[in-house]
Design a protein that fits this description.
Blueprint lengths: L8 H4 L8 E4 L7 H12 L6 E4 L18 E5 L7 H6 L3 E2 L7 H6 L7 E6 L7 E3 L7 H7 L2 E6 L7 E2 L2 E3 L5 E4 L14 H12 L6 E4 L3 H7 L9 E3 L2 E2 L4 H6 L14 E3 L1 E2 L3 H7 L5 E3 L2 H4 L2 H5 L4 E5 L3 E3 L4 E2 L2 E2 L2 E2 L6 H10 L4 E5 L11 E2 L17 E4 L2 E4 L5 H10 L3 H15 L9
Length: 434
């Protein structure tokens, strides 16, 4: 391995030119020291028309501040909480894309890539570093960027799989010792626990799981302590899986792909999760084009995908990315896993959500709000779960779906929804039998 020359973050970002497209490693691994240095160049009047791309990131995202309008253009692949307000006000933007295809944007040339700015673990004796908690589309960016800047950070775990890259792939090196951003979640409340129990009732022994991060996934995982031989093939996981790994409930023994392994493309959790994947050969951090490929997903029997929604209409259309016209998140991997799990032998695609918002508004609506994005189409929809039960919409007619969806709405909203269904479908709706 040739000797690595370390430069300062300010020196490293001098390679960025006006008009460049810059990729940032994502989620917990956003290279904050490089982001700050890049913004200092803008403060000095040295840059304009620089395009920033990434999956959602955690921590500060100053390049989307109003003062950088016309200097930085944040065109992200998923809207995180740190850029939600900026996206809704137009100072940042969103590229609608399936998570599985984010890497393809670079690989097929649809999106230019001039500079990739990443964080990595310290180099090992064999000349490799690890991308740690975030492989996603970052590997593709590293492969295709004209210049790769890597921050060596001892807090980045040494994870395996596609996360391992050769030091020869990196052009400029700098160092930082900032801890990775952690995500800590409260214990599930009563509603979330009910939803968790209903979802868990659909999961058989030997299933392979995908679920996201947050209260409902944690509530589901908390109900699986007596299950056997579960596997993980997901786009991300967090702390909730660790007790099940320790108990031997999650062991991957029934998986057809990556048998005995946990597979993910990025992570977001506490330091405990980051420590768990460090030097752990039982975890494979893979390219998002692999983890989210519906046909790879479908090879695992009894694949269960659990995803969330912001709103569902009477026919089973799912809005998961926007509040009306205001973008809230993104398409993400929902369709990748809903479609993949539906192709799996014995697989189940589940959309789980509370029946009402924090303000008491029904999340089940006669029609989606104007401007709402349909992430999961009515043709993709299978199971819908709320705290009021489980319904399976697959193979059901529009009128049958309406009756089923209303049955898991909050009781105080059912009469209004039933009236809307009658007005939509006509008198025959009253005679539909389930």
């Amino acid at each position: 391995m040739s000797e690595i020359k370390i430069v300062s973050a300010d020196e490293a970002v001098k390679v960025i030119k006006s008009g460049d497209h810059v990729h940032l490693s994502s989620v917990a691994s956003a290279p904050q020291c490089l982001i700050q240095a890049m913004c200092r160049r803008a403060d000095n009047g040295e840059l304009k028309d620089v395009y920033i791309h990434h999956l959602h990131t955690e921590g500060p995202a100053p390049y989307a501040d109003e003062k950088y309008a016309g200097i930085f253009y944040s065109n992200q692949f998923f809207v995180g909480s740190n850029l939600r307000k900026q996206t809704q006000t137009g100072y940042a933007d969103y590229i609608p894309i399936f998570l599985s295809e984010t890497q393809k944007l670079y690989r097929c040339g649809a999106l230019p890539i001039d500079v990739a700015m990443i964080q990595v673990s310290p180099p090992d004796k064999h000349g490799y570093v690890s991308l740690g908690t975030s492989v996603d589309a970052t590997l593709a960016a590293v492969e295709l960027a004209k210049t790769v800047i890597a921050v060596i950070n001892p807090n980045v775990p040494r994870s395996f799989g596609d996360a391992m890259i050769r030091t020869s792939m990196i052009d400029i090196w700098c160092e930082d010792n900032t801890p990775l951003v952690e995500a800590l979640f409260k214990e599930p409340n009563e509603v979330e626990t009910k939803i968790g129990k209903y979802c868990a009732s659909l999961i058989e022994d030997g299933s392979c799981l995908q679920m996201g991060i947050g209260a409902i996934p944690n509530a589901v995982l908390a109900q699986l302590g007596n299950h056997k031989n579960l596997g993980i093939h997901t786009e991300m996981f967090a702390d909730g899986v660790l007790p099940l790994v320790e108990k031997g409930v999650i062991n991957g023994e029934n998986k057809k792909t990556d048998k005995g392994m946990m597979v993910s493309t990025f992570l977001m959790g506490s330091q405990t999760v980051y420590d768990f994947i460090n030097d752990n050969p039982g975890v494979r951090m893979m390219d998002v084009g692999y983890t989210n490929d519906p046909y790879i997903i479908s090879q695992n029997e009894k694949f269960v995908a659990i995803n969330s929604a912001l709103q569902v209409d009477l026919t089973g259309q799912v809005c998961a990315d926007s509040l009306g016209t205001k973008h809230y998140s993104g398409v993400g991997g929902q369709i990748d896993f809903i479609y993949g799990s539906s192709l799996s032998k014995g697989g189940k695609a589940i959309v789980a959500m509370p029946a009402v918002t924090n303000k008491g508004l029904s999340k089940i609506a006669p029609v989606l709000n104007p401007g709402a994005g349909v992430v999961t189409t009515r043709a993709h929809m299978h199971y819908l779960v709320t705290e009021y039960g489980v319904v399976d919409l697959y193979g059901k007619s529009l009128q049958e779906r309406a009756k089923l969806v209303i049955s898991v709405a909050a009781p105080e909203h059912r009469e209004e929804l039933d009236r809307a269904a009658f007005e939509r479908f006509g008198p025959h709706y009253n005679y539909v039998k389930l």
